Structure formats: structure tokens, C-alpha cells
Protein: Galactose oxidase-like protein
Amino acid sequence: MLRRRDLLTALTATGVLAACGTRDSQDPATPATRWPGDLPTTTATWQELPPPPIDPRGAPTLTWTGAELLVVGGTGPVVGPVPDCPANASCAAPPTEPVTDSGAYDPATGTWRRFPEPHSFHHGTTWTGNLLTDGWSWFDPATGGSGPAPESDLLVYAPAWWSGTEVLCVGTDGSGQPVPHTLWAWNPATGTTRTSRVPGPDSGESCCTIWTADELLVGLTQVPDGYAGSSVQAYDPAHDRWRAVPVPVPGGAEETSGPTAVPFGGWDGRRLIGTGWNADQEPRLERVDPVDGTSDPLDLPAALQDPRWAQNVVVGPGHVAVGVGGRYAVLHEETWTALPALPGVVDGDPTTVAWAGDRLVVWDDSMERTGWQIQPT
Structure:
């Protein structure tokens, strides 16, 4: 799932983004979106999603199950006038109408089905094959049933991942202080839970996780005395063991090298995709080998040499999409292709984006429309 206002937002089975590293989200004032003509444009066209039988909402959780795109949670329309908020001020969110239901969209048939109960999640969700869960609660779209999961104080800001038998989370106690990190595992079939201490630094300013083919990568980053140091560990749940992923340690907070300072991005089926900036504040993408920690940059065409593109990346099996303000480009088989502009969307319009198989789905968070889908390759 991708939301424009976030640098990296946890996605789900489509390819998940989990922020890691020491850099803050960058969202500079943006001029009108430009798209230089140095990228070939696909002949595919955007198709508007059919009207869903669910409440209007912005910023829902979008989760691909392999057959359907689950649309749960989100924020309803604003109730009453929106009060002015001074520039650079922190203002309370205006009240919104409640979201009372959820739904699932089948892109192959273009049909929806509705779940009569609302379902919201704390952070990144994972699909277990029959349940949607974030480690705090679960939802079964086949029956519409839901319930609590065994709660743990380790799950604050902790995206959930599915290993094939267990839901895995790594988080902190949410106290706002550097604390040890612990892995929490829950087996929905047996209802049992277990924990495992994450090796590496005892404290961290941030933690990120991502599931590969058979391991959970855990990145812990800390900045003592202005020095950026990181630890990347890989956990094998089948054998309950950890290993260190060798990564270079940067010489300072502004230097970026390998996964040390490149936020964990999505898993493309073979390698980790990370996003970040170089010392000249130019956006970059890197592919990281989780076995030996080596990385190589993905060449960004001139059209993507803009900080805004680095803030909007969503990864699916074999695909990487980047974009903002209604313009997207897709990397597939080492080739970048521009997608046509989204109809009626301008720079600054909020959207939530996910891969649904080989289709890119864009949800209109402004609630003026439902959204669109495109099959770019």
C-alpha cells in the first residue's frame, strides 16, 4: 500500500514497504508535475474501478490475496467545515464519518463483494492464505468473521509478515525510548505464540522488517552522537535461528551505502528493493542481495530524477512502480515504461496504491472517484 504523504508505507502481499533508516520523509513544495519525454509510454489505458458497494473512504488498507483486493478500514468523509490550520503547524484531524463496512474487488471479473462489518488495522497487514491480520486482530473474508489476535506490546509500529505457518512481527513497546527489539511469532492454527530476541544493537532509533522467500530481514538503526550505525539480521523461522547480513557501515548520517541507509522496500521475488537519496539529495533505487548484503543501483532515467518519485514506490512480484500526482512509471524486466496520466488527477491529490497481481490499482483518497486499474505489461 502506498500513500503519497508517507515516504514508505507498509504494504501487504503485493510487496510491502516498511520504513527503515535515519532520514525523515521529504515532501518539498512541489511545482506542477512534469514528465519529460524520455520514457516510452505504454499503450495500456487506465480503467475506472466500478462503484463499490461500500462506504466512501480515503486511505484504506489494500491487500492482495492472490485473487481479490481487500479494501478495509480507511477514513470516511469529513463532517462539517474544515478549520484552518496554519502553515507548519500540527493540527488535530477534523472529525469524519465512520466507515461501517469493508469489501473485496476481483479485477479479473470487475466485480465487488461487501463485508457488513468494518475492519481496521494498526499498521502493516499480512495475508496468511485465509486470514488478514496485523498481529492485533484478524479478519476472514470467506466468512466475514473477525476476532482479536494474541496481543503483545512488541507490536507497536510493527508490520506483520506471514512465514507460511506463523505471523511474524518485530517492534518496540511504544514508550518513545530506545528499547531492545524482540521478534514475536503467532501460529493462528494452534493459537500459540513465541518470542525470539533480535541480535545486534540493544537500542535503535528505527526498526524495519521485510519477508523474503524464507527469511525475515530485520534492520535496526541507531544514531549515537550523530554517527549512523546499523545492524541487519535475517531470521529463519523454520529453524529458529538468526544470522547477520553483512552490510557496510556508513561514515556519517549523510552517507548512504547498501541497505544500511537505504530503507527496506518491497521484495520483487528475488531481491530487496530499497529507496533513498545519495549525498547530492538525488533519489535512487537499489537492489540488495540478502545473502551477502551486496547491492547495485537501479538506473533512474532523467524523468525520475526528482525527489518526489523516491517517495512513492510500490513493489510487486517482477514490478516496481514509482510516481506522484497521477503520473507513474513501471520497471519490468529492466525496462522503465511511463503510464498515461490518471484522468482527472492532479499533483497533490492523495491516492493509495497497490499491486493486484500484474495490475496496478490506484485508490482515490479524495473520494471524488473510486479509483483506477491498469495492466501495464
Observations:
- Helices lie at 258-261, 307-310.
- The longest strand covers residues 229-236.
- Residues 1-34, 248-262 have pLDDT under 50 and may be disordered.
